[in-house]
Amino acid sequence: MSLHVPTADEQATRELLVELLQDFHRRGWVSGTGGGICGPSEDGGLLLAPTAVHKERVRPDEFFTVDPADGHVMRPPERSDLRPSECNPIFCLTHRARGAWSVVHSHALAAVLAGDLAKAAGDDHLEIRDLEMLKGIPGVTNTDVHLVPVVRNTPREPELVSQLEAVFADPRFAAARAVIVRDHGAYTWGDDVLEAKRHTEVYHFLFEATVARRGRQ
Fold first, then answer.
1. Do 173 and 164 touch, CB atoms closer than 8 A?
2. Greatest Cα pair distance in the chain
3. Which has more pLDDT, 8 or 189?
4. What is the spatial distance between Cα 21 and Cα 135, in angstroms, rounded to a whole number?
């Protein structure tokens, strides 16, 4: 796990996060104020999108800066009516456990349906195989069987932390860069913002393809 803080200009990072939220909204991944994203700040914190707002309308100056060690707010935005994302504890845990400086929380339909496949099989994971796009995940080839962990949903997102701690400690999921939350969506991460973007796109394709294939069987 690398704890090196990326040296990208913070304003550029804020603008990139806003651009990605708009793109993910167009794809239907962060619609209805759902979803979230974070990226690195210049002072070693995480830039965290606000909660309960339309993500495609978030502005660069509306991110909170939180300490990834415990999630406390280091710098709030000027708007006093905003609240930090409920993803905060999960994003910080993913940083500590996986060295991730960027995490995307998606409410995509494909992630929900992929979780349904695991639930129907009585599994705590989704098996993905025989797809070229698997090579978009570090250390994974198109001949591997890739396991994506699936956890049960909870009334509040911070309550997912104990399940995610178990996932991160499970050697079966060492290669995974995503976790599916049943009936909810997925968390996907990377070492930096653009890697998190790539992994998010790769996993959503893999979810869609796996669901489509199972539906034809």
1. no
2. 53
3. 189
4. 25
d(CA 88, CA 86): 5
Residue spans of alpha helices (H) in the chain? 10-26, 88-98, 109-121, 161-169, 193-216
Catalytic residue among 15, 127, 132, 165: 132
Cα distance between residue 212 and residue 131, in whole Å: 13
Q: What is the pLDDT of residues 128-145, one digit of tens each?
A: 999 999 999 999 999 999
Residue 56 designated active-site? no
Contact assessment for residue 180 and residue 111, using Cβ atoms and an 8 Å cutoff:
yes
pLDDT digits 0-9 by tens, 139-163 = 999 999 999 999 999 999 999 999 9
- Spatial neighbors of 23 by CB under 8 A, at least 6 apart, are none
Average pLDDT score over the chain: 95
Q: Determine if residue 215 is left, alpha or beta; phi over 0 gives left, psi from -120 to 50 gives alpha, anything else beta.
A: alpha
